[in-house]
Amino acid sequence: MGTVYLAEDLKLRGKRWAIKETQHVLHDYQRFIDEAEMLIRLHHRHLPGIVDYFPPCEDGYSYLVMDYIEGETLAARFTRLGQRVEVTEALAIAKQLCELFHYLHDELPVPMIYRDLKPSNIMMDSQDQVRLIDFGIARHYKTGGNLDTVQVGTIGFAAPEQFEHKQTDRRTDLYSLGAVLYFLLSGGKYPYSSNIPLSEINEDVSPDLSDIVGKLLMTDPARRYSNAREVRKELERVSATLLQDDSLTAATRSFLGPVVIAVCGTGPGTGSTHTAVLVAHFLARKRRNVALVEANGSGDFSRIECTYEGVKGPILDRPTFNLRGVRYAKADDGLDMIAFLSGPYDFIVLDLGSYMKTEWFGEFLRAAVQIVVSTGAEWKRTDILSFFEAYPELEPAHCSLFMPVASKTMIRDLRSLLPEYRVIALPVHSDPFCHQQDTAVILEEWLGLAKRRKKKSGAAAFKWFRAF
């Protein structure tokens, strides 16, 4: 254990480091030095870079200087999201950890066993990339050894052999991987205390995935998977099955080209751009190829690009840019929609801004999916009703009304006044570029991605999306 500080580099302006301070007893000094030397030699994209260390001083304090990872631990994220993680997200995390364990177990001159995998030791950065931290009890594997010198680990995630005076090996880390998956997908239960198959706890978990986790958690190491590459291959198979079953994929394949989602507001300042960005990045996190087109003259995309690139000067002179997996196309009189429609995109999201100020409204009417955005202000209700009265040709099967931060009374009234249309209440979502669990659940249900949690969320609820 220790304390981690955020430090600013006085020579490299703007560079920040994480510095871990640990106090040791005298006989522990050499162990720290050995650990630091070991970590400096490790180089992998799922590990923080260790750049320097200071051995224990006369008072026993040591310091480890490493890359600062801007993000949060998986434990903190799990708590923030109400102890709920989507299956696809859990699979993505597990596959990254398998990649890292393959490096540690099979690509180093001497295999390294981590021995302390748990959510609080897994950092998630802003791109949902894993970084494994705290190698305090990692050890090199000794062929032919019968037991570890010290039995250590975290109850709930450590393998049985860590508490039975037996030697740990690759399969020890794989057990912990299974325990983490079980914890995430069971709502925070530990496998040793629950002993119930995952698919019986979480109906979103397929029998295949439940069996994989069950094999990882076998008490006898000989009955577990033998290496991380084998586990990753099995997880990839489950991921492929999820994508094949995904109604979003089926709908996409029914088109000769990308699905066009057009977003417009019933007036200025209703949140059209915010909603378009939110939807585009939600789809990108579902591993879809997404383009977001600025079909208005606001210039917001240029300002987004400058903010993202850290540019304070003039607007960057390029028509498109990539941000977190979404291809942004700035407003341009010469923008060729045909080129986008023939491009490698699953979805094209059009941000029209206010419908009263755009020349692109014809594209809105032609779009496969139409989103009308308005505010929850009571005095804006007439704007909403006027919009739908002005365009009776809109088909309710394809068109939805999104209401960010609207009261329950407002939503209930609009659903009564517009019974044929889907009226979607969006929660407060201040950063549309990032994942937020309550918003993701709503968008999944809107797009028909929810995994048949209840009968009432079946065919009738999502018929609008499958209709085209």
UniProtKB/TrEMBL annotation:
Residues 1-242 form the Protein kinase domain. CDD domains: STKc_PknB_like. This is non-specific serine/threonine protein kinase. PANTHER family: SERINE/THREONINE-PROTEIN KINASE NEK, SERINE_THREONINE-PROTEIN KINASE NEK2. Its EC number is 2.7.11.1. The keyword ATP-binding applies. Keywords: ATP-binding, Kinase, Nucleotide-binding, Transferase. It comes from the Bacteria. GO terms for molecular function: ATP binding; protein serine/threonine kinase activity. InterPro entries: Kinase-like_dom_sf, NEK_Ser/Thr_kinase, P-loop_NTPase, Prot_kinase_dom, Ser/Thr_kinase_AS. It comes from Paenibacillus lutrae.
